[in-house]
Design a protein that fits this description.
- By secondary structure, this protein is of the alpha/beta class.
- Helices cover 40% and strands 12% of the residues.
- The N terminus is likely disordered.
Length: 354
């Protein structure tokens, strides 16, 4: 039996003296599968099974279809609020989260380092408890993963990693949704990473094998991924029958790859290393020469902002580049994350083939 939330919302509006009418809103059936994410934290994709990550992508596609393409109004988060802590500035993370949460009827509250000093003027424990009493969830974009771990331990509400020095899980969800839309399936794809052994690569390593994707990564010497992350990624590859290789040769990593991926060479907080890094990353720019050794159906991803030394214009603005759909999908995937962590909503869209 379908649950019609529209009727309940309209009755509640009348009781409170409002005269608006909620149209085109109909919830799906209560969650029937084994995936249940409500109340959990999203600190790293390491903590989620393949089926759980697939569920978030399924929900992303469902919300995108219903809201963007069908024009439905889905106030799934009406009456809920989200605390947004940003130690690092951002375009896509802030816009996608603020607009997405508001589009679902909720209230996002943006906090910068001018508003809140994590662990400085108030302990992380106290901050977590205060936010737990006033908001329904917190998305934190921080420098240290350990700060997120403490927030999650002390808070009684879901904590979402908006980026840390170690992981960037919400970016990878957007990447995978983009590839799912383009290729129709993720299983069997080879991801070719060319760049720094950073939080983006770490998040790919914690999830790609769970979809049956192979990973070939090239990083300069001294800029390899974290050894503990590598060890766990090798275990995932073995368990899922996929291949993972690490090299210092960009062309070796690109060879036969379906998806060429890179990121900034100089993240926020690394500005003093700029000269050293630019020298170390010589030869790592993604160009058509790189693409020549990739698979015939190659595409390109970059989480932005992009610098020309990382990828030239010919690749970045080519028809093979998916960077702008990738950026838009940050919105639909973060919407799916907050819906899955805060509600019992179940997708109406038929589950995609992953």
């Amino acid at each position: 039996m379908l649950f019609n939330l529209r009727t309940l919302l309209n009755k509640a509006a009348l009781r409170n003296g409002h005269n608006f009418v909620v149209r085109n809103f109909r919830c799906g059936q209560p969650l029937q599968n084994k995936v249940q994410l409500k109340g959990r934290d999203l600190l790293t994709l390491k903590d989620f099974t393949g089926e759980e990550i697939k569920y978030m992508l399924w929900l992303s596609a469902d919300l995108k279809l219903r809201i963007k393409h069908n024009g439905e109004y889905l106030p799934l988060l009406q009456g809920k609020s989200l605390g947004m802590i940003f130690e690092k500035r951002s375009t896509r993370t802030r816009l996608s989260t603020e607009t997405g949460f508001a589009l679902l009827g909720g209230h996002p509250c943006f906090l910068t380092t001018q508003d809140i000093h994590l662990g400085v003027n108030e302990s992380l424990t106290d901050t977590a408890r205060v936010l737990s009493s006033m908001t329904d969830a917190v998305l934190a974009r921080v420098y240290k993963q350990s700060d997120l771990d403490i927030l999650a331990k002390e808070a009684s509400i879901p904590i979402i990693n908006g980026l840390s020095d170690l992981y960037h899980p919400i970016q990878i969800l957007a990447d995978y949704l983009t590839l799912q839309e383009h290729y129709g399936s993720l299983k069997g794809l080879t991801l070719s990473w060319i760049g720094d052994g950073n939080n983006i690569l770490h998040s790919i390593m914690m999830s790609a094998a769970k979809f049956g994707m192979h990973l070939q990564a090239a990083t300069p010497k001294g800029y390899e991924p974290d050894p503990s992350v590598t060890k766990l990624a090798e275990q995932y590859a073995k368990e899922n029958g996929t291949k993972m290789s690490l090299t210092h040769d960009p062309l070796e990593a690109a060879r036969g790859g379906n998806v060429l991926i890179t990121d900034t060479w100089i993240s926020m907080g690394q500005e003093e290393e700029k000269k050293k890094r630019l020298q170390a990353f010589q030869g790592y720019q993604v160009t058509m020469k790189t693409a020549k050794v990739a698979a015939s159906d190659w595409t390109f991803l970059h989480c932005l902002p992009r610098k020309p030394e990382e990828v030239d214009d010919e690749v970045f603005y080519s028809p093979r580049s998916l960077v702008f759909p990738e950026a838009e999908n940050r919105k639909w995937t973060i919407m799916a994350v907050v819906v899955s962590l805060l509600t019992d909503y179940s997708p109406q869209l038929q589950k995609p083939k992953f």
